């Protein structure tokens, strides 16, 4: 059956890197035809039409139609996957409250439209920043959709952590298992090497503690800024790649003996307040994310997880005070 995939911010740079991969079958697999729905703001609809022309010109066998709209009700109608990429970026002089409010004006109505029009099996991935809190806003506007269907992306951070560690140890990325990003998709995130394994042995024991603390953690956490500095634009192809990875694994499952990272609603595990959309070590089974249980958290990790989770609590309290959730 053809699956409708809605992408917001479709005319943006992540959209441009993402849509072709969805249409080629990399999101849901080579057996699943897709119909793309592109949601944009009115000023960007024309650009989205241009991208749609290029999608046509690829003659992707799995692509069974493209719709373009500036109306969330139409764009999410019958959608089974929603990739919420379009967001209001922080501009000069903008306070956090202004940023959260502007995004509330986007993710609230989109959550409502998902609630009213999406398919029963809708899965939502929020990419647009501040991703975790935008996901919370959309979720709270969609009371009829199971809360667990709203997730935010930390897979790019996860992939960055894999790549940094692989380079340090001079091993292929595929030899690294059980990497975890904890907390918020922000500079406070905590990439955890105390449970990651390289060649079956704990990664933290194979690197110097100074490197882990002073190089690895800040390099992963600030990689987005380093890309902007180098490229003059924020991560786009790598962000699109991570979105593909996230939804692919959510739908198709994570490999045995490994896990990944995703920001999903907390069930209270690891002391993360219930309901907060925070990044955890997760596996996907039967189309559902499950938090990996029973990991021992030492004082070093605890302090860093708490710092990032506290930031999420502050963001949640700020959007609550603004009446956005
Ligand atoms: P961009 O500025 O190139 O594109 C954003 C697009 O969203 C624009 O075409 C804009 O017209 C559209 N848009 C704005 N409001 C909209 C609305 N209400 N409905 C539909 N479309 C709307 O930005 P880019 O580079 O594609 O990044 C998108 C977002 O992804 C940003 O918030 C960025 O911070 C975030 N991001 C998140 C990452 C993550 O790891 N979670 C990684 C990289 C970027």
From TrEMBL:
Q: Which GO terms describe its molecular function?
A: L-malate dehydrogenase (NAD+) activity
- Keywords of this entry: NAD, Oxidoreductase, Tricarboxylic acid cycle
Q: Which residues form the signal peptide?
A: none
Amino acids binding NAD(+): 9-15, 103, 110, 127-129
The Lactate/malate dehydrogenase C-terminal domain, residue ranges? 154-318
Any single GO BP term: tricarboxylic acid cycle
Pfam families per record: Ldh_1_C, Ldh_1_N
Q: Which reaction does it catalyse?
A: (S)-malate + NAD(+) = oxaloacetate + NADH + H(+)
Q: Does the keyword Protease apply?
A: no
Q: Which domain of life is it from?
A: Bacteria
Q: Which residues does UniProt mark as catalytic? A: 185
Q: List each copy of the Lactate/malate dehydrogenase N-terminal domain by range.
A: 3-143
Which EC number(s) does the record attach to this protein? 1.1.1.37
Q: Which PANTHER family match?
A: MALATE DEHYDROGENASE
**Function of the molecule:** Catalyzes the reversible oxidation of malate to oxaloacetate.
Family classification: Belongs to the LDH/MDH superfamily. MDH type 2 family.
Q: What is this protein called?
A: Malate dehydrogenase
Its taxonomic placement starts with: Bacteria, Bacillati, Actinomycetota, Actinomycetes, Streptosporangiales
């Amino acid at each position: 059956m053809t699956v409708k995939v809605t992408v917001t911010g479709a005319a943006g740079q992540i959209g441009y890197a993402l849509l072709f991969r969805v249409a080629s079958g990399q999101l849901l697999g080579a057996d699943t035809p897709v119909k793309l729905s592109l949601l944009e703001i009115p000023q960007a609809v024309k650009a989205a039409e241009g991208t749609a022309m290029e999608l046509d010109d690829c003659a992707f066998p799995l692509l069974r139609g493209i719709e373009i709209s500036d109306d969330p009700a139409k764009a999410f109608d019958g959608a089974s996957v929603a990739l919420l990429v379009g967001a209001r970026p922080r501009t000069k002089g903008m306070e956090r409250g202004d940023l959260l409010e502007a995004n509330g004006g986007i993710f609230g109505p989109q959550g409502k439209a998902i609630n009213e029009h999406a398919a029963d099996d809708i899965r939502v991935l929020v990419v647009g920043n501040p991703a975790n809190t935008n996901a919370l806003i959309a979720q709270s506007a969609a009371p009829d959709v199971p809360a667990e269907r709203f997730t935010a992306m930390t897979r790019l951070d996860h992939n960055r952590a894999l790549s940094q560690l692989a380079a340090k140890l001079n091993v292929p990325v595929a030899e690294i298992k059980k990497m975890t990003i904890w907390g918020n998709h922000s500079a406070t995130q905590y990439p955890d090497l105390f449970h990651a394994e390289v060649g079956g042995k704990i990664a933290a024991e194979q690197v110097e503690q100074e490197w882990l603390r002073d190089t690895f953690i800040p390099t992963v956490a600030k990689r987005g800024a380093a890309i902007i500095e180098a490229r003059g634009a924020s991560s786009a192809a790598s962000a699109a790649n991570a979105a593909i990875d996230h939804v692919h694994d959510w739908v198709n499952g994570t490999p045995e003996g490994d896990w990944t990272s995703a920001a999903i609603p907390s069930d209270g595990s690891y002391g993360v307040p219930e309901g907060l959309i925070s990044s955890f070590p997760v596996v996907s089974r039967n189309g559902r994310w499950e938090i990996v249980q029973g990991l021992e958290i030492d004082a070093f990790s605890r302090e860093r997880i708490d710092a990032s989770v506290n930031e999420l609590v502050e963001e949640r309290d700020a959007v609550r005070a603004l009446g956005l959730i």
